[in-house]
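Newbie here. two chains, one complex. Structure please?
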Amino acid sequence: MDKKLLLDTLDLVNELIHKQTNIELDADDRSLQELAEMIGSYCMTRSRKMTVLSCCMLISVGIRKHNHLLPDDKESLARSILDGDYLIGLIYRVAISRKEQKILKKINPIYKRMQLQSLEGRKSEGFMTELKREIKDYLDQQSA
Amino acid sequence: MKKPLHEQLQISLHEINEMLLHIIQSDHELQRSTVLYASVERLIMAGGKRLRPIMALVGGRFGTSERSHLAWKAAGLLEYMHMASLIHDDIIDDSPLRRGEQSLHAATDIGTAVHAGNYMIARALEWSSEDELIDENFYMGAELAALITELCVGEYDQLQHRFDFSMTLDQYLEKTKRKTALLMGACMSAGARAAGADEAVANQLYEFGEALGIAFQIHDDLLDFTSTSEQLGKPTGSDLRNGNITLPIIYALEDEDLRRQLLLLHCDTSKAQFDEAIVAVKQSDALDRSRQLAEQYTLKAKSILENFEGHSSIKDLQVLVSYFIKAV
């Protein structure tokens, strides 16, 4: 596996995150490692691979922040809500600034459906599988 | 009595509300029997001045009439972003009320309110590019959605500076730009861009909206001191009680006696001590000085109007300036 792709992307994302947020992402995520492996196998520039993986990383962690809220700890609750909002907003910023806007058309509907599923009380485990499928579809189209 | 803002600008609030409802009604993935649908519908029906979509539609008048429907799309997306940010802000600020009604998290629960806010932005972005043959509108919408990061940094700023009485005027203005003014500037420029206005025009409209946005936030800071708790739907001086350092407080800190009194305040201070401090701030010149700074920003907006001499929609910008001057 191209572990360097994951680590370089992590560095890129952490550099893009505004210092005031105090958010730092790490690479200890099995599903992200799988995505990195899949993205790494496509024939495209390393910069584009990093952009696609950045978006996956941000949406994955952003959703997790909003799914693990501690209502009784006001400080932690406020931070988790802001962190999630910030990371999801950053997906749009990263995709636009790195000219990979088309990926947003794939990610936005999944993200919306994910919110609907969460509101219905459904578990979010299937989300990463759906994300991986859509990203694969996107990469297939892009490299065709 | 003067007509309300939307009537002066010949914008139908009914049409705006219909558009906002249409955004959820046209989502085939959202069941009408759900708590989410009812919650968003209730939020929309609760009304409001709809300043942001009005600003986007005024911005759209600087483009072409063939593309004016795209300014409506920008207006819908921006109002949904604004509503979603209010839902999340109410949780962060632990506010049980919004416009005199129960806030969404109080009426449902925190998880529902968080996901509802997220859904609203994603859905509005999806809606803003529906029925369009080109992707351009989606990307324009995505650029607006990216502004969320700036709004968040403004919120982080506020969170990290709770009861931080060392906040400077420059820091306050920076936070205010991010929290409020940026979105108002974006409303003006996004409406213009969507409707096909020149980039230079869109940029000037951004400056115009940003200046009005700062005046608007200062006005909001003042209302926290000058309105009754009944009018506000929360106790007078709630900003100070929550540790939010607003402009009147920054000015009040320049008075030595007041400074000593304010520096004693913290999250566990008694209600009576806060009440005393709030009365003291009201009796000082801090409110007048805040009003003067707000006026300077409305004058700044007015000075930008010179760039639009000869344009048929300059009168609409004048209406906006007059509205904000009156509000301040």
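Moderator note: The two ends of chain B are 18 Å apart (CA to CA). DSSP finds 18 helices and two strands in chain B. Thread marked as resolved.
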